[in-house]
Amino acid sequence: GKRSLRQKVVDELKHYYNGFHLLWTDTKVAARMVWRLLHGQVLTRRERRRLLRTCADLFRLVPFLVFVIVPFMEFLLPVFLKLFPQMLPSTFETESKREEKQRKKLNAKLELAKFLRETIAEMAKRNKADTG
């Protein structure tokens, strides 16, 4: 059904709260990783990727905070997100956006696999023709 204006506002506030909470948690974990790096420990590939994502999110947070702090500027946020789709920190992405990104990555991987399979088949035909 259709949601009321009050319910939409409450949902948006919950979304922002959850996004900031996740970003705070990621920042705490990243700080521990930096501490480990400063003391000579080596990070795993997964930890390194998480640290890089958190740092990127913190840099993206600065322009995003302008939209949150300045009154009524959040109405312009969808326009800026259309112009700059990577502006939003990753903790603020909705589930549908995340699924759409995964779908695009999967399609790209499938196309690459199809191309490689065709290339290998073509190379096998050439080798068979050369030896036969």
UniProtKB/TrEMBL annotation:
Got a GO cellular component term for this one?
Answer: mitochondrial inner membrane
How does the record classify its membrane topology?
Single-pass membrane protein
Kindly list the places in or outside the cell where this protein is found, as annotated in its UniProt entry: Mitochondrion inner membrane
The organism's place on the tree of life at top rank: Eukaryota
Query: Biological process GO terms, please?
Result: intracellular monoatomic cation homeostasis
Write the signal peptide boundaries: none
Chief localization class? mitochondrion
Protein name per its UniProtKB record? LETM1 protein
- The Letm1 RBD domain sits at 43-128
InterPro entries the UniProt entry points to: LETM1-like_RBD, LETM1/MDM38-like
Segments traversing the membrane: 58-81
Under the heading PANTHER family, the entry gives: LETM1 DOMAIN-CONTAINING PROTEIN LETM2, MITOCHONDRIAL, LEUCINE ZIPPER-EF-HAND CONTAINING TRANSMEMBRANE PROTEIN
